[in-house]
Amino acid sequence: MNTHHNGPARAHETHLSAGEVTSLPAMGEELLADARSANSGSSGRTARTVVALPGLRVTLIALTAGSELAEHEAPDAATLTCLTGQVTLGTTDRTWPLGQGDIVAIPGRRHSLTAETDAAVLLTVRLA
Questions:
Q1: How many CB atoms lie within 10 A of CB 118?
Q2: First CA to last CA across the chain, in angstroms?
Q3: pLDDT at 38
Q4: Which residues contact 16 (CB under 8 A, 6 or more apart)?
Q5: Which of 10, 90, 100, 120 has a Cα at 20 to 30 A from 65?
Q6: Which residues, other chains included, contact 23 with Cβ-Cβ below 8 Å and sequence gap of 6+?
Q7: In this model, does residue 2 exceed pLDDT 80?
Q8: pLDDT tens digits for 54-99?
Q9: For the chain, what is the HEC assignment?
Q10: CA 102, CA 95: separation in Å to the nearest integer?
């Protein structure tokens, strides 16, 4: 089944089912439009869980330039892939600049994420 997401991003929308296909660039643009919206109350960021399976969660996060995900705990095992734009993943002692197509294994300690430009990133987390 080939299903593409249409319409604005909403927190209550369900994630993809097995076998469904969506366009991450199109979804990222929709989420960025929501993040840019003066009425969104999003603080310059929006997110949607794209895939939720037992033991796995994939979330698309859109951030406007200058917005940040403040320092938070790291999941046990996760990667961050920059789909568009430029972001910086940072810990207290190191930073990782990421551009389109770059991927990093998230370090197992507190970290933050800052959008250097409007950006869309894909967070993949192994759930315990």
A1: 20
A2: 29
A3: 58
A4: 3, 22, 50, 51
A5: 10
A6: 4, 5
A7: no
A8: 999 999 999 999 999 999 888 889 999 999 999 999 999 999 999 9
A9: CCCCCCCCCCCCCCCECCCCCCCHHHHHHHHHHHHHCCCCCCCCEEEEEEEEECCEEEEEEEECCCCEEEEECCCCEEEEEEEECCEEEECCCCEEEECCCCEEECCCCCEEEEECCCEEEEEEEECC
A10: 14
Q: Which two tokens stand for residue 21?
A: 């296909």
Torsion of CA 27, 31, 37, 39, to 10 degrees: 120
Structure tokens at 61: 């996060």
